Amino acid sequence: MTDREAVGALRQPADSLPDGCSIIVDAEAIDLLEQMLGAPKAEDRLAGLARAWADDHDGVRPRALELALVTRKSHELKKLGGWFGFLDGIGMLGDVERAVLALDGGRGRDFLLEIEHGAYTKSFKLVTLRAMLNLGTLRSGSSVREVALNSRWQIFKDPKLLGDLSDAGKSFDDVMHPTETEWDAYWTKNPIAAWTGANTKASAPWFSVANGEMALGLDVPDELGLTFDAMVAELVEYRLHRYVMSKSARLEGQRLRPLKADGSPLDAQFVVQQSLGQPLSVVFESAGGVKNADYRFGIDAVLELLSELGALLVDAYVDSAETRHMPLSDRRLATDDIAYPLALSEIENVVDLRVKLQRSSARLGRGVVKAKSGGNREKQIRLILGNLDGYDAVSLGIALATVPSSVTESAHRGAVRA
After folding, report:
1. Cis bond before residue 341 (omega within 30° of 0)
2. Which of 3, 60, 78, 416 is the one with CA 20 to 30 A from 330?
3. Are residues 377 and 281 in the same domain?
C-alpha cells in the first residue's frame, strides 16, 4: 500500500474491527496528511493502474511489459526495489515471489534489479538470459556452446536485434552466415564475458564459466525454481522491449550507411521511411564532389540485402528537390527491360540493375545546358518496396545497415561503373 493509499483508507469505514471497537480520526488530520503528501507521484498513478488492471483481469496482476504498454513509459522504480519491489510494496506479490526476492540475503532482489536496471549498449546480455530460459538451464547451468547457438537463433530471426551485429563484420568471414566456431568466440567475448566479469573488474559477477559450462552464482531451491524463472523472464521481456524501443527512437529517420564486406561503412547515405500509410521506401542521397563518393557501391549493397530479404521493388523514381514538381510518371526510373514490380531475388546481378536505374535517372531533371551532356547519374532516388511483412522503417534500416552475404571486397572493386 502506498502512502497515498494509506491516507485514503483513513476516510473509509473500518468494517473489519471487532464488535464494540472503533477508530476515530479527525477529518482535519486526514486533510493535513493529504496536503503533506503533495501532488500524486508517478508510483501512485502506477499503483492505481496496476489495481485497475487486476480488477479487469480476475485479480491477476499486470506483467511489467503490460503496464509499460499502458503508460507508454518505462518504469522508474529502482528506488522502490524495482518492479517487484514496487509490487511488493502495494501488496501484489505472492509469498513465493517474496521468497525469491529474499534469496541469499536479498541477492535474489539484487539479481532482478540488475536485469531491470543494468546498462545495455546492445541486446546481447538479455538475449543470453533468454537463451538459458529457453533451454531450461538458467538455474542448472548450460554449455557455453548451447547458450551461444540459441542466442544466434534469436538474433537472426528478429530484424530488430540483428542490427546489433552491424559493427561485427571483422569478427566473421560472413557476418550473415557465421560458423559455429566464429559465433562461439564472438558470444564468449561479448555477453558471456560481461556476465562473468571477464571484461570488467566486478568483484561478484552473477555467472561463472568452468570447463565450458556457464552457471548462475545464485542457489535457487527447487521449490522456488519455476517462480524464479518466471520473474526473470518477465523482466527480460520488459527490458528487451525497452531496449528495442529506445534504439528505434534513435534510429527513426536516421541517415544510415551501407557496409563494405569488412564491416566498415561505405561513403553513401540512405534513409528508410514509412509514414501516412505509405509503403516502405529507401531514399538514397545524391552524390557530388566528395559527398557520398560510394553512391553506386552503396546502392549495390542495399539492393543485394533487399534481394536476400525477398523484397519487391515496386517502383523507383528520382526524388530530388528539382524534380518533385514533376508528375511521378515523368520521374520514374524505367527502361524497356524494367517492369515493376521487380522480384529482387530473381535478379541475377544487382549491379546491372543499378546501372540501368542510373542511366534512366541521367535523363531526368536536366536543364537546357545539362541536356547537352550525359546528365547526372547520381541523383537522390527513392525505391518503393513491397513483400517485407514484419518490417517497419526502423527494423528495415537496421537490416540494411549490415553486410550482404554475397558481397565481397573484390566485387565492390570490380563493380561496373556507370
Report:
1. yes
2. 416
3. yes
Q: Which residues contact 214 (CB under 8 A, 6 or more apart)?
A: 132, 141, 142, 143, 144, 147, 192, 195, 196, 207, 208
Residue 32 to residues 22, 29, 80, 143: CA-CA distances in angstroms?
21, 5, 25, 60
- Pairwise CA distance, residues 13 & 1, whole Å: 17
How many distinct structural domains can be found in the chain?
A: 3
- Average confidence (pLDDT) over 31-52: 77
Report yes or no on 261 lying in a domain: no
In whole angstroms, give the CA distance from residue 243 to residue 122: 8
pLDDT at 181: 95
Q: Mean pLDDT throughout 123-150?
A: 98
Give the orientation angle of helix 144-157 with respect to helix 124-135, to 10 degrees. Answer: 110
CA gap 153, 168 in Å, rounded: 17
CB 67 within 8 A of CB 53: yes
Flag whether 382 is in a domain: yes
Same domain (yes/no): 26, 112: no
Q: Which of 281, 262, 141 is nearest to 209 (CA)?
A: 141
Q: What are phi and psi of 171, to 5 degrees?
A: -90, -10
Asked whether residue 243 falls in the same domain as residue 278, the answer is no
The verdict on 199 and 55 lying in the same domain is: no
* Selection from 37-51, 52-66, 193-207, 251-265 with the highest mean pLDDT: 52-66
Q: What is the pLDDT of residues 71-87, one digit of tens each?
A: 888 899 999 999 999 99
Residue type, 366: R
What are the φ and ψ backbone dihedral angles of 142, each rounded to 5 degrees? Answer: -150, 155
Q: For residue 37, is it within any domain?
A: yes
Amino acid symbol at 393? A
Q: Which domain holds residue 82?
A: 3-90
- 264 part of a folded domain: no
Domain end among 90, 110, 140: 90
Which residues 6+ apart lie within 8 Å of 363 measured at CB? Answer: 375
Q: Which of 14, 33, 120 is nearest to 74 (CA)?
A: 120
**Cell 548450460, located at residue:** 142
